[in-house]
């Protein structure tokens, strides 16, 4: 794995960068978006993820949500593996779920981060505050993605 020539970003710097990038954003329930990032990072840690996966967890939605430009990611002092995981988890406009899942499965380390992301997204307490139609749609969407990724149970 090739590192950038600069000093790698510390875990605290990655977290601070992600929090700053998403500042002011909220999730579907109106909660500060950084709560989701923290939950995914903690989920990765609890599942035995390494430092590169935890960094990717903090940044997993940054490019997709336009919180950070892809150029920032390319130039950031992060490992290639962390960058690859973030890019694998970045949904592309119009991309079929099957292609998205295939990219995650083909990227070492990405599945664990996506598993933690899906676990937090599908948390019944988090979904309970949404209207019934949204809750049903999201529950089905997350279950389908889990199935495409081979995450059963």
The Cα radius of gyration reads: 15 Å
Q: Overall mean pLDDT score?
A: 93
Instruction: Spell the H/E element sequence.
Output: HHHHHHHHH
- Total number of β-strand segments? 0
Structural class: mainly alpha
Largest sheet: none
How is this structure best described in words?
The chain is globular. The chain starts with 10 loop residues before the first helix and ends in a 5-residue tail after the last helix. With 153 residues, the chain is mostly helical. It is built from 9 helices and no strands. Helix 2 (33-46) packs across helix 7 (110-121) and helix 3 (51-59) crosses helix 5 (80-89). Helix content is 61%, strand content 0%. The longest helix is centred in the C-terminal third of the chain and has 17 residues, at 132-148.
Question: Outline of this structure?
Answer:
With 153 residues, the protein is mainly α. The protein contains nine helices and no strands.
């Amino acid at each position: 794995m090739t590192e950038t020539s600069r000093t790698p970003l510390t875990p605290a710097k990655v977290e601070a960068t992600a929090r700053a990038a998403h500042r002011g954003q909220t999730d579907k329930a109106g909660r500060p978006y950084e709560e989701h990032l923290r939950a995914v990072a903690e989920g990765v840690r609890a599942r035995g993820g390494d430092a590169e996966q935890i960094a990717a967890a903090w940044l997993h939605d940054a490019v997709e949500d336009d919180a950070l430009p892809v150029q920032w990611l390319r130039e950031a002092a992060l490992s290639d593996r962390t960058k690859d995981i973030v890019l694998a988890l970045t949904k592309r406009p119009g991309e079929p779920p099957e292609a998205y899942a295939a990219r995650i499965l083909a990227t070492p380390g990405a599945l664990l981060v996506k598993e933690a992301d899906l676990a937090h997204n599908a948390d019944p307490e988090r979904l309970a505050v949404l209207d019934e139609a949204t809750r049903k749609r999201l529950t089905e969407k997350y279950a389908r993605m889990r199935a495409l990724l081979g995450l059963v149970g």
